[in-house]
Write a structure and sequence with these properties.
single chain; alpha/beta; Rossmann fold; 13 helices; 11 strands; globular
């Protein structure tokens, strides 16, 4: 009851404080300015650290709006002959008594929904300060009169220019248009500079949009520094996800912990709707056309976003997956129960993990005190999750990292085993995942498990998985 009271009080404080300096449109939507701060940033400067001169190429902004203004997705009609919209929640993908099905239906019945409010392209600026990015918007629901600094790209998406009804569906339509934008971008590149990989990144709990961008600059810069390998040219196209993982004003008054139960549900919703479409439609089609490798990276609740997205294809797409879309998921101190892969009480939503990604590498640390005390059952990134992994060697391969963050032996390529990296020597806390050591770790993972087709001796793509699902 104390937790419930704190959460409800937090909602009240947030509503009162957030409306004070909001624009009329922000108040109408119920959105938070900190999660579209990029609208007031026509140019992104490089990180304050001199060596960090890289960053994301695109940013997808997801926000939380009131459902009396923002139309949410509806459950699919029980009778297919009645017609079906482009996207609906196919709850029949899960058994009637599944806790996961119940959770999705319950979360969809709330008064707020998560939706794409803006998609920005971040272009390099020639002849100016290295690492600077010019921001233009392919999709943006906010009026120019409120945000005059926000500049449209030369060819904004039709989802914006046609002024579709505001809702989850219009944001997903904009995501579909992102496929054409990426397709044309890749096609225009000469073979020598064409992207080899598409990386999708998500930060976790209590990360404002400006901090997410800074974190993506760290990841991308350190990863590219580690990947200076003439025999394996690495040219990633990087897409960052921004989602409302914090109650900013409430965090300042009451501390961030009050939002944990709300934000763990939000992370799942971001995953099974928006990032689901991004991965299983947009990027799967790009993979087929251009033979690029898809790698997803997430920290904390961002790891939950990515794992849920990978394993929720059936919720939005009724065609079965013939192959995993992603070559690799890298989860850095993931904040979800290790029992989501089986033997849990949440409906085992990741039970068929091998159908979603060819390989999973998930870090864990006994020194992650945040995950040690947060109210999640055996979170992957904690000592409890690590202990559970060691109990199931047929499902989890535990590999230790040294103090420099490098594995002490190379993990198996077996797609039926998830790799849990014991980073107790290298990772000193929940947020110790943005340094050079993690950049080297990500590069080792990509080099081993997501090699580009152009690299020497690159293995063939995995065929249909021989893995089995236990009872």
């Amino acid at each position: 009851m104390r937790w419930t009271g704190s959460v409800l009080f937090g909602y009240g404080v947030a509503a009162i404080l957030a409306t004070g300096c909001a624009t009329p449109f922000e108040r109408q939507l119920g959105t938070t300015a900190e999660y579209h701060a990029i609208l007031r940033t026509p140019m992104i400067a490089p990180s304050s650290e001199k060596l960090l001169q890289e960053g994301p190429d695109y940013l997808i902004g997801i926000e939380k709006g009131d459902t009396d203004v923002v139309q949410k997705l509806r459950p699919c009609a029980p009778d297919p002959s009645l017609g079906r919209p482009s996207y609906c929640l196919n709850l029949n993908a899960y058994p009637q008594d599944s806790p996961w099905r119940t959770r999705i239906a319950r979360d969809n019945d709330h008064s707020k929904t998560l939706f794409v409010s803006h998609i920005a392209r971040l272009d390099n600026i020639d002849h100016q300060k290295i690492g600077s990015k010019r921001v233009c918007f392919l999709y943006n629901i906010y009026p120019h009169s409120d945000f005059p600094e926000a500049t449209d790209c030369a060819h904004p998406f039709a989802a914006q220019t046609q002024r579709l009804p505001l809702g989850v569906m219009s944001g997903l339509t904009a995501l579909e248009e992102l496929e054409q934008e990426l397709d044309e971008r890749i096609m225009k590149e000469p073979a020598a500079t064409r992207p080899t990989h598409v990386l999708v990144m998500s930060t976790g709990w209590n990360t404002l949009q400006v901090d997410s961008i800074d974190n993506y600059q760290h990841w991308t810069s350190y990863l590219k520094q580690a990947a200076r390998d003439e025999t394996r040219p690495f040219r990633p196209l990087v897409i960052g996800i921004s989602w409302p993982s914090e109650w900013p004003l409430v965090s300042r008054w009451l501390g961030p912990i009050v939002s944990v139960f709300n934000k763990e549900h939000d992370a799942d919703e971001v995953g099974y709707v928006t990032v689901n479409v991004l991965v299983h439609k947009v990027l799967d089609n790009l993979k087929r056309k251009h033979n690029v490798q898809i790698v997803v990276i997430g920290h904390s609740f961002g790891g939950r976003v990515m794992a849920t997205a990978l394993n929720s294809r059936a919720l939005l797409f009724r065609d079965g997956a013939s192959h995993p879309t992603a070559a690799l998921m890298v989860g850095l101190q993931p904040a979800f129960s290790i029992q989501r892969f089986g033997d849990g009480d949440q409906g085992d939503p990741y039970r068929r993990f091998f159908q979603a990604s060819q390989k999973y590498l998930l870090t864990s640390s006994t020194r992650d005190w945040i995950l040690a005390f947060v109210g999640i059952t055996n979170p992957v990134g904690s000592s409890r999750g690590l202990a559970k992994a060691k109990e199931r060697p047929e499902r989890f391969e535990v590999v230790s990292l040294d103090k420099e963050g490098q594995w002490q032996r190379e993990p198996s390529s077996n797609p039926c085993q998830l790799v849990v990296l014991d980073g107790s020597e290298a990772i000193s806390g929940h947020h110790d995942v943005y340094g050079a050591a993690v950049g080297r770790l990500m590069w080792e993972a990509i080099r081993s498990f997501a090699p580009a087709s152009s690299w020497p001796a690159a293995p063939q793509s995995a065929q249909e998985s021989p893995c089995t699902v236990g009872p």
